[in-house]
């Protein structure tokens, strides 16, 4: 999901910002589940770099539970999944948020997560449960990873903008695109899966053409959107970027190519071996509550998963849900991910 620093740019890869009083900075805090005293009064959540919720939402958690929620950021969703998968039973936090359906199987298979069936999941989140899992991850939000275009850039130059992901086979458009490495970026992985779903056995040739045409391929969303994208914060040189279908709601003058979308769901889960497991369960419950669910569209430009959650005025028009998206079963992704990544690296010369 993307938002202009992600909060003004929109992604289920959308969100930037400092959470005053909540963001723990420094490597020392990665062991923040710390001493016995803090383990009962604080709960630490590991998340990706794009996480953002308003301070009053975080304050509401303290009012409801009496616990302080500390946020520790750890790269993109792909890096996040790898980090917790390497430390099963010895986590660096109590709970994790931001693992998506493209990487969900990795920490589940590693035994890094503790099952928990949140009562509120029955109100919507349960519909996005990982198939054949045991409630290790609970859905929080959903969105659609799509190519975004800076329409103002093209109109100001009297140039024709691309209308499909297929247009990136043209070197002119390929050279104008900022894409992401699927090995380190969840939007990047989502777009790789899109090409697998759309082009079938020809997906590698698509990437060969896009790479040879000069597309920039970077580690994550923040670099692509906020540094390279011409409509992003950095006003970069690339008028095409991989982001979310909801990103244009935060960045006027842009649009999403709705034939290039992959449905992405983000999850929260309790880390096995958490010092404050009770607090972690309260975080899961809180993420499904209306305080967080109502805040998701305007703060992280994603759709809430809980039914009957009201959306901001005009949201459906500014952030339309694609009528068609690529969808692959998590088990199928897990079985083929490493092979697809090897093939992708060969195709783009990495």
From TrEMBL:
GO annotation terms (biological process): thiamine transport
Gene3D superfamilies, per database record: Periplasmic binding protein-like II
Gene Ontology MF terms: thiamine binding; thiamine pyrophosphate binding
Chain ranges passing through the membrane: 12-32
Domain of life: Bacteria
Pfam families (alphabetical): SBP_bac_6 (PF13343)
Record's keyword annotation contains Transmembrane helix: yes
GO CC field: outer membrane-bounded periplasmic space
Alphabetical UniProt keywords: Membrane, Signal, Transmembrane, Transmembrane helix
Protein name, as recorded: Thiamine ABC transporter substrate-binding protein
Classification of source organism: Bacteria, Bacillati, Actinomycetota, Actinomycetes, Mycobacteriales
